[in-house]
Amino acid sequence: MNGSMKLGKIASLLALSSAEDEKEIYQIGADLGYKLYKGKVGSMDSTKIFAAVETAAKKEGLVKALYREEHAIYHSVLEAYNAICRGQLGLGNVLRSVGLVFSIVRGPRIPGDYEDGEWIAVALYGNMGAPIKGFEHEVIGLGINPV
C-alpha cells in the first residue's frame, strides 16, 4: 500500500482519518519522507480558514517565512477552498459556514523522487451549509503546489 501513497493521497487520507487511523497515516507519511500536520477550523469568514492553515504550516515548520514557500501554501489552500466552495468563493457574505478538518503535507510529489523538488498539499474536509445545525452537507477539497 505504501508505494501508492503519494502526496495528495496522504493529505486526503489524513484529513479523512479517525483518531485510530491517524497514527498509522502519520507513520506511513514519515516513512515516505513527508512532514504532516492535521488541524481543525470553523468559520463564516474565509480569511480565518486561510489564516488557520497558513499559521499552522508556519508554526509546525512545514513552510518558512520565504515568499516562495508562503506562496505555495497560499495557493494550495486556495485550490482546496475553491473545491469545497464549488467555485463560488464566499462564506459569510452568502450565509454559509464551514466546520473543517485540514491537513498539510510537505515532501516529494512521488515518494523518493526529490529531483522534482518539494511540494505542499492541503486537504480540507468537513461540513458546509447555512449557519443552522442540520442544514449542512459534506465537502472535500485538495490543493497541491510546488514549493
UniProtKB/TrEMBL annotation:
Keywords: Activator, RNA-binding, Transcription, Transcription regulation. The keyword DNA-binding does not apply. It comes from the Bacteria. One of its GO terms (molecular function) is RNA binding. InterPro entries: Regulatory_HutP (IPR015111), Regulatory_HutP_sf (IPR036482). SUPFAM superfamilies: Hut operon positive regulatory protein HutP. The keyword Kinase does not apply. Homohexamer. Antiterminator that binds to cis-acting regulatory sequences on the mRNA in the presence of histidine, thereby suppressing transcription termination and activating the hut operon for histidine utilization. Belongs to the HutP family. This is Hut operon positive regulatory protein. It comes from Desulfotruncus arcticus DSM 17038.
